[in-house]
Amino acid sequence: MSLKKYISIFKISFAQEFAYRLNFIMWRVRNVMQILLLFFLWTTVFSDPSRVVFGYDRAKMLTYVFGILVVKALVLSARAVDVPGEISRGDIINLLLKPVNFFKYWLTRDLSSKALNFIFSAFEIVILFLILKPEIYLQTDLLLLAGFFLSLVFAILAFFALLMITSFVPFWSPESGWGAQFLMVVIVTEFLSGGLFPLDILPGAVQKILYLTPFPYLIFFPIQVYLGKITGDALVGGFLIASFWVTLLWLVMGWVWRKGLLVYRAEGR
């Protein structure tokens, strides 16, 4: 019964995505424009097909660029961006009175958003591939492909927790929720997760600091696994760090949620 309940939530949320067509279209257009900008930037850098820069050849760098489109669709797209508004308006009380788990509810809605965004990203990649005809690196190692999909699971769970933690800001400051999310999603996450460029082009000292944060494991790490640039002990170590961050972030998310409920006054109601 519980599973059927969340399947129904998934279906309803998936259908509701089309109610926000303009927002969805603008999000997709923004992502495609970003990919086009990166594509033309790196094709200029790799004007000589045999050139290797930062350990990437032309095919792997362009695969990284198109990989951003797919991974962002699966990791960064989320319906949980609505949580701050729900808290500020007091609408969250409606959910608290229903027989559903708050986090499972929003994770299910997130998954519906990711499913739709993935479908569109796949369509966009096919169109861009037919137009641009880029050189693409195809990974054939089944173990690395399995690692890639596992890394996506870690990334989805970690980003969900990060987004939720920032979404709870309105418990204490009702007018600040959107600003906190914009800072987290648009600025911090995209830049530090490798959503604009591969993080291994940065100086070594900066990379070491970044690898101690959860951000590289959202976009950069999964794509690196797919490209075969992280294997063996480094791959196992990466999974251990990613699992550590998922566990820690979910614990913090639960703690902040409980603290927020203690001060929640449903002022919008």
Automatic annotation (TrEMBL):
Give the Pfam families listed for this entry: ABC2_membrane_6
Transmembrane segments annotated in the record for this chain: 115-132, 144-172, 178-197, 209-228, 234-257
Superkingdom of origin:
Bacteria
Keyword Calcium attributed: no
Q: Does the keyword Transmembrane apply?
A: yes
Keyword annotations for this protein? Membrane, Transmembrane, Transmembrane helix
PANTHER family, per this entry? SLR1174 PROTEIN, SLR1174 PROTEIN-RELATED
Name of this chain's protein = ABC transporter permease protein
